[in-house]
């Protein structure tokens, strides 16, 4: 009787009594370290959740402590300006001024500025619209310009539902291709420094190189360019904008090209769009390198199967395999995989049949 399954050829006679074809699944109860009645991973996750909540509350407290005085001072300046306006224009009623301020605020929330707006370019020119579309599909979402019509709002939702997955696929494909030279750099570091440092130390060095590349070419240098081009931005504001944008936070308090007298505004918006796509791609590449180092991936501490995690850490500490993304590269760059053919014979019939090839009966 011949049984062929998944590339392995098994020739047997009454093999059901000798060797089971499929191993039995044995359920093993987890017997790891337990703390307060919980397994180690659950205890660490609960501790991490508690620390994360403290982190959130601490951040909220700090923002309140720093920003609340600034808000109170702004409120005082607004009230002072309104009182001065009443003194200079005694014929203006409260209702007229309130209506004017309301219209200005509504327009500002929709990206229409009342300051020199007549000389400025429309927010929905092609360059501006391309910039808006890129912020939608990359989930940055500055919020400084939003669709005004009902048709535009419906189209924006449909466009985002289709565009966000397409953008994720595009960015993932770009990262996969950029991983080839990135892994090549890691292999070069291993060949040059493998006799001096441990594999983990070399991977940390490789990660630092990637972080340095991201900081210099996509934060520091672009921030210097924005500080020169934007008249109201200093260098700190420019670095703040680059970081908020590349991390897709997108607060919308700083938008390039929104000054009233900005020259070549559409071209400037298109160049900024290209910068955002390239910067987010390099950010994802750096995160891929970071997450592929198990010793730095805290998420492995909370997994239930700790044996698999320890095996990942062991492999990461070895120089035999380099894992990045969905691909696995070995230092020998093996391109072919060999399939092993296993032949099992029954003890009752050790001699090969005339039709069957074997060690003594090769045709």
Keywords:
disordered N terminus, two-stranded antiparallel sheet, disordered C terminus, mainly alpha, two-stranded antiparallel ribbon, 363 residues, Helix Hairpins
Low-confidence stretches: 1-30, 326-363
Structure annotation, total helices: 9
The fold-level CATH name of the domain at 123-303 and 311-340 is Helix Hairpins
Structural class by helix and strand composition: mainly alpha
Share of helix, binned: 55-70%
CATH class of the domain at 123-303 and 311-340: Mainly Alpha
List the secondary-structure elements in sequence, H or E.
EEHEEHHHHHHHHEE
Compute the gyration radius: what is it?
32 Å
Distance between the termini: 20 Å
Catalytic activity: Cs(+)(in) = Cs(+)(out); chloride(in) = chloride(out); L-glutamate(out) = L-glutamate(in); Rb(+)(in) = Rb(+)(out)
Pfam family, one: Ion_trans_2
Membrane topology: Multi-pass membrane protein
Glycosylation sites: 117
Structure commentary:
- The chain contains nine helices and six strands; from the N terminus they run E-E-H-E-E-H-H-H-H-H-H-H-H-E-E.
- With 363 residues, it is mostly helical.
- The protein has a domain at 123-303 and 311-340: Helix Hairpins, CATH 1.10.287.
- Strand 5 and strand 6 form a beta hairpin.
- Helix 4 packs parallel to helix 8 (265-291), helix 6 crosses helix 7 and helix 6 runs antiparallel to helix 8.
- The chain starts with a strand and ends in a 34-residue tail after the last strand.
- Residues 354-363 have a biased composition (Pro residues).
């Amino acid at each position: 009787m011949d049984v062929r399954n998944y590339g392995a050829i098994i020739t047997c006679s009454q093999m059901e009594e000798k060797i089971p074809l499929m191993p039995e699944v044995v359920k093993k109860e987890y017997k790891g370290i337990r703390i307060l009645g919980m397994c180690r991973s659950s205890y660490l996750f609960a501790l991490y959740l508690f620390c994360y909540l403290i982190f959130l509350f601490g951040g909220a407290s700090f923002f309140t402590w720093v920003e609340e005085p600034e808000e109170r001072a702004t409120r005082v300046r607004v009230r002072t300006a309104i009182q001065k306006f009443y003194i200079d224009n005694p014929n203006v009623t409260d209702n007229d001024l309130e209506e004017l301020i309301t219209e200005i605020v509504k327009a500002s929330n929709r990206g229409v500025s009342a300051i020199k707006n007549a000389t400025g370019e429309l927010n929905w020119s092609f360059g501006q619209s391309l910039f808006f579309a890129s912020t939608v599909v990359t989930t940055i979402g500055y919020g400084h310009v939003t669709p005004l019509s009902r048709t535009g709002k419906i189209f924006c939702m449909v466009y985002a539902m289709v565009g966000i997955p397409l953008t994720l696929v595009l960015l993932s494909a770009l990262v996969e291709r950029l991983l080839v030279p990135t892994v090549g750099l890691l292999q070069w570091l291993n060949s040059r420094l493998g006799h001096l440092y441990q594999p983990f130390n070399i991977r940390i060095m490789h990660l630092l190189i990637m972080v340095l590349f991201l900081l210099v070419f996509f934060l520091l240098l672009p921030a210097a360019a924005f500080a020169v081009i934007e008249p109201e931005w200093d260098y700190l504001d420019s670095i703040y904008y680059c970081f908020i944008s590349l991390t897709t936070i997108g607060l919308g308090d700083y938008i390039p090209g929104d000054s009233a007298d900005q020259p070549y505004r559409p071209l400037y918006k298109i160049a900024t769009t290209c910068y955002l796509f390239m910067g987010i791609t390099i950010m994802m590449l750096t995160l891929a390198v970071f997450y592929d180092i198990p010793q730095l991936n805290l998420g492995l501490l909370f997994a239930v199967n700790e044996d698999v995690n320890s095996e990942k850490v062991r492999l990461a500490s070895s120089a035999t395999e380099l894992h990045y993304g969905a691909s696995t590269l070995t230092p020998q760059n093996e391109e072919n995989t060999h399939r092993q053919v296993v032949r099992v014979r029954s003890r009752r019939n050790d001699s090969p049949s005339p039709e069957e090839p074997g060690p003594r009966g090769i045709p």
